[in-house]
Amino acid sequence: MDASMQVVPSGSAIGADILGADLSRGLDAATFRAIEAAFNERSVVCLRDQHLTEEQFIAFAKRFGEVEIIFLTHYAHPRYPEIMLVSNIQENGRNIGHVDAGRVWHTDMSYTATPPRATLLYAIDVPEEAGRVLGDTLFASAVAAYDGLPEAMKRRLEGLRAVHRVSGRRKKTGTGKEDNPLRDRQPDVLHPVIRTHPVTGRKAIYVSEGECTGIVGMEDAEALPLLADLAQRIIRKDYQYRHRWRKGDVLIWDNPAVQHIALRDYEWPRHRRLMHRITVGGSATY
Question: Catalytic residue among 42, 98, 106, 191, which?
């Protein structure tokens, strides 16, 4: 294991920086195990000051599991389909990447039958103004939110399953309209309202407002307010971590354990943002 590597907790409920690890040189098994352990414990970890080729980024992501290809393939890297471009940059009047990613609180790809274990985002360009970096990302612990539920609420939620619809949150916010025909083709899926983490075994609230359109066997008049209440419980301030980006960051988050939202305080062409994103496959929920 690299003796110079340090894990520095954020001071918030989740989040940590990992310093002293150079992903471009590859990692021995012990060093990767230490990174993975920090990831499992802290839910969001950032490896600072990285300088990676696309091949190196993909190779690191594959240490966590099988890389997934999302259905929005027109935002894929032109040479590396494993990488999705998250960017506000326009070329010839067209967005080169997914400009609208992360606008609302969510967990990635919960609309799939086996949602991803992890998402990795590598910061190529970060927007700045007057020396201040823009475009922070907020994360919230759905595990802490579950732990904070009253026991009676935990019992009420046992065995409930929510309907997840990929187009739900986009139609709720009115954003991303150009991709809605693709979203509409994705089938609804069911997931437990309370999900058990496949690695740590901890329980988490697994709903997001808008994307979850109902609860099986429950009238909407009861289900929708319950879903909204649970979604708000997840994003309590004391469950949050705020990531302030730096160029060269490789940020990894645990989708079964957290939700996130990307702040949109920047705009093209005044500000330039480019991230490489990879999602790593997970398992069926329970």
Answer: 106
Looking up residue 193, the CATH number of its domain turns out to be: 3.60.130.10
Q: Does 233 reside within a domain?
A: yes
Over residues 220-245, the pLDDT tens digits come to 999 999 999 999 999 999 999 999 99
- Establish whether 277 is a catalytic residue: yes
Residue 191 is a catalytic residue? no
pLDDT mean across residues, the chain: 94
- Domain with 72, as residue range(s), is 6-280
Q: Pick the catalytic residue: 42, 98, 100, 108?
A: 108
Q: With respect to residue 18, please indicate whether it lies within any of the assigned structural domains.
A: yes
Range 59-84 average pLDDT? 95
Please check whether residue 21 lies inside any domain of the structure.
Answer: yes
Q: Is residue 285 part of a domain?
A: no
- Return the beta strands (E) in the chain as ranges: 6-9, 16-19, 44-47, 67-68, 84-87, 90-91, 94-95, 118-125, 128-129, 132-133, 137-141, 161-164, 189-192, 194-196, 203-205, 212-215, 240-243, 250-254, 258-262, 274-280
Tens of pLDDT, residue by residue over 115-136, are: 999 999 999 999 999 999 999 9
